[in-house]
Amino acid sequence: MAKKAAKKESGRMSQKEVLPGCEIYGLGLYLVREKAFVVSDLHLGYEEMLNREGVLIPRFNFHDIVGRLGLAFLALAAEGKGIERIVVNGDLKHEFGGISEQEWKEVLGMLDFLQQHCREIVLVKGNHDTILGPIARFKGLKVLEEGLFLPATSTYVTHGAFVPDNEEFRKAKVIVIGNEHPAISIREGVKAELFKCFLHGKFKGKELIVIPSHNAVTIGTNILKEKVISPFLKQPLGDFKVWVIEDQPYYFGKIRDLQ
Amino acid sequence: MIERQTEKYSDEEIHRNLNPLLSAWFRQKFGSFTEPQRYSILNIHARLNTLVSAETGTGKTLSAFTAVISELLNLSQGNQLEDKVYCVYVSPLRALNNDIQRNLLEPLEEIAAVQGKKERKLGIRVAVRTGDTTTSERAKMLRKPPHILITTPETIAILLNAPKFRENLRGVKWCIVDEIHALASNKRGVHLALSLERLQRLAPEMTRIGLSATVAPLELVAEYLVGYESERVQRPCKIVDVSFLKKMDLKVLSPLPNFIDVTPEQVHRALYDTLDKLIQGHQTTLVFTNTRSATERVVHHLKEKFPKKYLSGNIGAHHSSLSREHRLNIENRLKQGKLKCVVCSTSLELGIDIGFIDLVILLGSPKSVARAIQRMGRSGHKLHDQVKGRIIVLDRDDLVECAVLLKNALEKKIDKIQVPLNCLDVLAQHIFGIAIEDKIQVEDLFRLVTRAFPYHSLKRTDFFEVIDYLAGEYTSLELRYVYAKIWFDRETGWIGKRGKMARIIYMTNVGTIPDEAKIKVKLGEQTIGTIDEMFLERLKKNDVFVLGGESYVFNFSRGMTIQVRSAEKRPPTVPSWASEMLPLSFDLALEIQRFRRLMEEKFVYRKPKTEVIEWLHEYLYVDENSANAIYEYFHEQFLFAEIPHDKKLVIEAYCEGELTHLIFHSLFGRRTNDALSKAYAYALSRLTHKDVELSMGDNGFVITSEGKLPIDTALRIVKSPDLRMLLEMALDRTEVLSRRFRHCATRALMILRSYRGKTKSAGRQQMSSRLLISAVRRISRDFCILREARREVLEDLMDIDSAAKVVQWLESGQVKVRKIATPLPSPFAFNLLLQGYGDVMKMEDRLAFIRRIHERVMQRIAEKQKVV
What we know:
The structure holds 2 protein chains of 2 kinds.
Chain A: H1 2-13, E1 17-19, E2 22-25, E3 28-31, E4 36-39, H2 46-52, H3 61-78, E5 85-89, H4 101-115, E6 120-124, H5 132-139, E7 142-144, E8 148-150, E9 155-157, H6 167-171, E10 174-177, E11 182-188, E12 191-203, E13 206-210, E14 221-222, E15 241-245, E16 249-254
Parallel strand pairs in A: 4-5, 5-6, 6-7, 9-10, 10-13, 11-14
Antiparallel strand pairs in A: 1-2, 2-3, 3-4, 8-9, 11-12, 12-13, 12-15, 15-16
Chain B: E1 2-4, H1 11-17, H2 20-30, H3 35-45, E2 50-53, H4 60-77, E3 87-90, H5 94-115, E4 126-129, H6 135-143, E5 148-151, H7 153-160, H8 165-168, E6 174-177, H9 181-184, H10 187-202, E7 207-212, H11 218-226, E8 237-241, E9 248-253, H12 264-280, E10 285-288, H13 292-305, E11 315-318, H14 324-335, E12 341-344, E13 359-363, H15 369-376, E14 387-392, H16 396-410, H17 424-437, E15 440-441, H18 442-450, H19 460-470, H20 480-483, E16 486-488, E17 494-497, H21 502-509, E18 518-523, E19 526-532, H22 533-538, E20 544-547, E21 550-558, E22 561-566, H23 586-604, H24 609-619, H25 624-640, E23 648-656, E24 659-664, H26 670-688, E25 692-696, E26 701-706, H27 711-717, H28 723-731, H29 735-747, E27 754-755, E28 758-759, H30 762-779, H31 784-797, H32 800-812, E29 816-821, H33 830-834, E30 838-841, H34 846-867
Parallel strand pairs in B: 1-8, 2-7, 2-8, 3-5, 3-6, 4-5, 6-7, 9-14, 10-12, 10-13, 11-12, 13-14, 18-22, 23-29
Antiparallel strand pairs in B: 15-17, 16-17, 18-19, 20-21, 21-22, 23-24, 24-26, 25-26, 25-30, 27-28
């Protein structure tokens, strides 16, 4: 019995690999050869936006994200996997126009926290990041307009709101995007629960990995029901593979079989 | 003291006390007073709080206004009429306000005419103030305040906070609450009760007058009306009960001799033939259908089947989704006697004088005796006229229900209403309003709110939790400026408003009626209708569902819109939605159960059919078809299985493949069954460590699961003292709690519908509330607004008290459980199994659920690989 349970457990443990060298930790993707950790769509300040709309939601996104990232970093360290670079793949902050003291505090706090766990932070611009510049300059960070190319594995990390048009992107074999906030409803009978998920499929012959949002306030877009927004995903998605994220990744096969 | 008014005053006595002008007008216009007027005018004249219960068309409204007009005339003639409000009239209906103005202005004009042309006008001003009142009209009212102010519960709350206008409310002498029966049982009424206390604070001498349709218990409504003058002392009130003045001619009709060996087409044809015959045999008919969709359908089919008889000019639909102009047009044509027939959902139940109607038809059960009487009372809208009502039934459960319902109506047994108590969301809204008026001592505030009947038993701890919530204590100190609505100084006990926007936030968000979240259904660019949000939860891609008589395939959703494509003639994969349905009242349900027992006795004692039919005619008020159908229905059930009744709860186990259905024949009404079914389903799912599905209705509920269900253990586990705790756990992750939480959070102003000049759609509110509820849970499972949402679900939506009563009956053996296994569902179980309303008791947490499903997915993938 115990043996069986242990086997089950190890069965689960092996499911973090999306592609060889691309592994799921928490809500982020670890690129083994590059020693890079990619996270997407933190949307800090989401609660302030809701407050401004007259929804008095208490704030917890920041603490939640820090907690989750902390666990992922611990797991990586435990397996002896170092982090050279953390790539924030767009939408670090939910909204910029008129930034409050509190909001500065959260963004700077997050960058400080990330800095403690890597050598370099790379910010990829997202569609919400209209004035990321000042913050990045304040912290002395790079902001990449289109994306980051990692030559060793021919991986191109981009937010996903548009398809970049450059030489590196064309060369890339693997593309990593965020933007979509993918989530999937798993149902049985009339019961259904929504989970954040990773997706893996193809985009014009390249491997495409979609990272879920790190935002703790919302789960995301149910790809089984709702219309997708990223141009990378405006294609039949039936063959895309799904990793559901709860306490750890669970491989769920193809979207087609979950509909 | 609350007591019934037994003394009837003579006409002469009343006339002696009235202003001579008014007295003369009364004699000229009516000759004599009506019953309600004889009991109440002089009480109100003597400034006693009075509750008048009488049917529409019995001069009820005038019984309240006569004393008021009389005194205003006296003042006017003595040149003592000041520029202030003397009488506030509150009604739940906006349309009614216009009507009352007509009914008040007309008498006033006529009285002026009695006085003679050359005299100056009476000088009594009447004005309507609602959310629709224009800015210029409002400014005019401020300059020249009306002496009689006609308004709604929401607007009165706004006026109490209007810095200038509220000065006109000081010294109000009378407050009349019309249609009080429609307010006392919901949060709108709770809200009004607090407004009345705030008004009374401005006008300590105010006399309260309630006008009610037939409702029970009147003592409770009176308590609600008057509240308390101090911690222990209830304000006095006289109850004038003159219900059941009109003669009632009521019958249940079955269009067909039985409902079993007939096709849907036959039922359909028989229904419309019956309808047509009834309508043609009367001058003007009013039809109630219960749902909006049915209203449209009935009008459509009548026009289609009898194109020469029913044209757009003489038949019309009336329901709340139709535009205001359309409804007003129908109402006016009805009043003018231009319509042969009007079909409505529930919208013409209350208020407004709708002119001459000689027949009311109810399609399907009105679900409560009070509602049946209210609806049928719309016919013969003049004193001494006869009420004529017919209920047409279309299935056997409906037939039994309506037959017993009519019996109760004719025997004047009215089901009881409940007043929601200690609603924390409404309390939060009002405390905010009171703090905006001025600084207040916390103890004075507590005394003020507990004078209102719905808060008389309010716990101090709950009160202070609401204060803490409003003071933003659930967030960190430096963020308080965003969240706090009031400040509270614990040292000095002072409470005051916080923030410059306070007043505008309050004024634009006041009220208790939630916006309904409707999902727009689109076929390409074309909008074809709306569905309930709860319904969308159930849809998955490629599901086929019916909307407006057509089937559609669900493609995808985005926000509050879904895209569909035509399904041609594919059968639906999801049953239609029945959220509009009215629940059967508990009291009536018990009466039906009692009838079931009497029927069982007939069969046990082997009474011959003729004798039973004869008894049926004697006991119920049914036609030949109906008596026959009732007999057959019960006889089948008796032969096939068991007849459940008020002393015997039958639980029927029926297996279908791997599935076990446990059918509880618990005819207690949907509100009670909602609570009972969730408690048992939760117990069963805990015992089996599996989710169980459940569906429920007025007549019982069904719990379904794979494998065996340990019903005996579940019956032992569910104990009446633990019922609330059990249900609170069962509710925790349900959609209904999240929905009600949105309503409560909106009322408590945690979600502002209207903010910085923008109005949030219901959908946007719902999305916000989903996020909010999970955030609030992190603060505390017992956060006061979340707790209020739970209370609302358990006490207002469900009926946990009646459910506890049922469990007690089971515990004491007063109701025995009878378990039976059937190879096929018994006749009484048919409708229970067909109920569209399904739900699932989520037992597993997300983690266990995802692991289990994942295992299954892994197996499937492994099998596929083997095949390859």
